[in-house]
Amino acid sequence: MSTSTTLVHKNIKTQSIKLVQLQQFCPLEYHIKYFEMKQPSYTQLVVFLQQFQTLEAWKFVVQKVQELYPQNLTTIQLAINGFPESLKKELTFAIPFDKEVASQVFELHTPALFIFYSNTEDLDILQNLETNLLIVEADFNDKYVRKFCTLLEVESHQLPSIKIIESKSLTQFSKYSYDDQFLFSKIQKFVTKYEEYQLVPDLKSEAIPLNPIEQGINIIVGHTYEQFILDSTRDVLLYFYDEYCDLCIPFTQSLITLNNQIRQGKTKIKPSQFKLGKINSRLNEINDITITRLPTLYLYPISNKDQPILYEGDRTPEGMIKWILSQI
Question: Which of 247, 254, 238, 259 is nearest to 295 (CA)?
């Protein structure tokens, strides 16, 4: 046997002896070493956590679950419910926000409660929070978190801030903002209301205009959207635009012409059963609708207000009138 082979065997034997000694005298450290050498199953991690109810075990398991089983982050948070109260107070229930957690929330569509903070003491209020939500801590001092805060419109003077995020896709998600006193009982009530479907998602909206009509077209904002499109006596055509969109300028003129022709009785569309509105998609949010391009036109027929129809034809008044008549 060569010298190098002998050395390898000695090293393996030495490591095995050390593991046996760890298993006998330091079982917690033994399991951690063992799991670092051999990938544990999720069940093994849960059993390990239940067996060694310590802060060290909790931190190790959370790290491994984030690394190997991110889809189980919510479940592992629930695993500590049976721990002694004295230990629970030492544990950080929240998972730090990173790219893996972002993937869990926005790609696997796991509802999550986010706490945005700059002072770690703000996290203490989440201890013993009863929820099935994934709880995520987001440190505003982190550059990656600040980019996320820009998307959610969270600013430094609003910290600490709590929001529940419910994702449908990478670009479409609902958020529920907590805007009451920063007290545990009130936060628990907020979370319970969400889980009982008693909360309404946030919607960004401009102020309701004093003069709601411009060049014959109704001006719609987030707060007036539902009232406008749910008119059961009229087919509703809603135009999504942005004042910075170059293509929207000629399209707006085509819609003004279309609207005038309908009002003057020059088409087969009955003026008493039709109305046209426009909404700035940059300044207003609509629940369940994500605008990916501009200009965009949706028709809400009297017969089916729940299924708006996207217009994809040419942008002339004649083309739009022909299409509307084919849909109503």
Answer: 247
